[in-house]
Amino acid sequence: MTTKSPNVFPVPDTEWTVRDTDVVKQHDTSRDGYGAVQQQMQWTTQADVEKVWIHEGNEFSHRLVTNKRQGAGLSFHVTTYKAGFDTIVQGRGVDEVVLFCLAGDSRQIIEETGEEVHFVPGMALYLPKIYRYRHIIGPNGLVVAVAATPPRQ
């Protein structure tokens, strides 16, 4: 049985109880002893969340998936940078981050080694908990998908 509810998509051929927009999977405890498992799939658009300014006038983010909003173990954002923005970015020792370039481009320079990468659509960048680089946004700006764990609020 499949039940559809706003912003929620249940897996077919499973029994579900629907409460508002939440879907709770009814789980047979006799098979694995784990008891009831809540499983939610949700869709969110940038229009559903507030714009969070990281650097006023130059960098903002829409935090689409967070622990606070969905109870997720990671956060997922879409971040937009204005053309020509030049900044130093450094890890706070708290989270690991992946950036995926969706549009535009930038130059990322590791100042202590001089290594420079031209970050373009289709490229991913993994950032460990501790890092530091100069980030120079190209003439058309930059839009990246961002995943972070543990999740940012």
Protein architecture, described:
With 153 residues, the chain is mainly beta. It folds into 2 domains: 1-43, no CATH class; 46-149, Jelly Rolls, CATH 2.60.120. It contains 2 helices and 11 strands. β8 and β9 (115-119) form a beta hairpin.
Write a concise keyword list for the protein shown above:
mainly beta, Jelly Rolls, globular, 2 domains, single chain, eight-stranded antiparallel beta sheet, disordered N terminus
Write the layout of secondary structure elements.
Layout lengths: L15 E4 L2 E4 L3 H4 L4 E2 L12 E5 L3 E7 L1 H4 L4 E7 L4 E5 L5 E15 L4 E5 L4 E4 L4 E18 L4
Antiparallel strand pairs: 1-2, 2-3, 4-5, 5-6, 6-11, 7-11, 8-9, 8-10, 8-11
Largest sheet: 8 strands, antiparallel
Care to count the β-strands?
A: 11
Q: What general outline do the C-alpha atoms trace?
A: globular
Number of domains: 2
| Element-by-element helix/strand order | EEHEEEHEEEEEE
Per the CATH scheme, the topology name of the largest domain is: Jelly Rolls
Question: CATH H-level name of the largest domain... which superfamily?
Answer: Jelly Rolls
N-to-C span: 35 Å
Q: What would you report as the Rg, rounded to the nearest angstrom?
A: 20 Å
Low-confidence stretches: 1-37
CATH architecture of the largest domain: Sandwich
Strand content: over 45%
Highest-level CATH class of the largest domain: Mainly Beta
Q: How would you state the average pLDDT, rounded?
A: 82
Q: Pairing-aware structural class of the strands and helices?
A: mainly beta
| Helix coverage percent | under 10%
Tally the helices.
2
